Amino acid sequence: MSVAETETPLLPIHIVPDPVLRKVARAVTPADMEEVRGLIPAMFATMYAAPGIGLAAPQVGRLLRLVVIDLAPEKVLEPIVLINPEIIAASDETASREEGCLSLPEQYAEVTRPARVAVRYLDETGVKKEIEGEGLMAACLQHEIDHLNGVLFVDYLSALKRNMLLRKLAKEQKDKAARK
Ligand code: ZN
After folding, report:
1. CATH of the domain at 40
2. How far is the CA of 143 from the centre of ligand 1 (A)?
3. What is the DSSP letter of 24?
4. Distance, CA 154 to ligand 1 centroid (Å)?
5. Below-50 pLDDT ranges, the chain
6. Which of 15, 20, 33, 147 is deepest in the core (most CB within 10 A)?
7. What is the C-alpha separation between 45 and 5, in angstroms, rounded?
8. CA 180/CA 174 separation, integer angstroms
9. DSSP class of residue 63?
10. Residue 63: phi, psi to the nearest 5?
């Protein structure tokens, strides 16, 4: 059974300026694992439905250090669960790419980050693992881990660009609410 086929109710995605997105999430402990195992399929279902390629627990209002990612290369699902992820190495070389975020719907901007990172984490069974990413995976890993620290991709933009984007988002969300 693939995670995409489970009939899991979708979780509401918190949108900027929801303050939960600016809080630091706490580490997952063994006592949290039961909740985390329930949260994982719900987070994947929510991410696939959005659609998105990464989702961090604070985006669904849970302040736990938990991230799900699936870049779905060639449309084949490759779900990755990262519990308590930590960037243990980052390249000096940087790369720029356009990023978006399910918590800032329809907003995109070029973000510059280290081109390659290595991340240590626990998988959903609690086994310690490491992943190395470059390209889209490197950006996605950094973007999602940022969420656990209350950091959003707009924080990397100039104040001028950030404010333009946030004003555009606020206006679009207001228009959307008015249409409901
Ligand atoms: Zn995001």
Report:
1. 3.90.45.10
2. 6
3. P
4. 10
5. 1
6. 147
7. 8
8. 10
9. -
10. -90, 60
Q: How many independent structural domains does the chain possess?
A: 1
pTM for this prediction:
0.94
**88, 130 contact by CB (below 8 A):** yes
Q: What count of residues does the chain have?
A: 180
Q: Which residues contact 145 (CB under 8 A, 6 or more apart)?
A: 56, 67, 85, 86, 87, 119
Instruction: Please state whether beta strands 54-56 and 116-122 pair in parallel, antiparallel, or not at all (unpaired).
Output: unpaired
5, 99, 144, 172: the active-site residue: 144
Distance of CA 115 to the CA centre of its chain: 18
Residue 132 token pair: 């190395």
Q: Could you confirm whether 144 is annotated as catalytic?
A: yes
Distances (CA, A) of 164 to 2, 104, 107, 159: 40, 13, 10, 8
Residues of the domain holding 135: 3-179
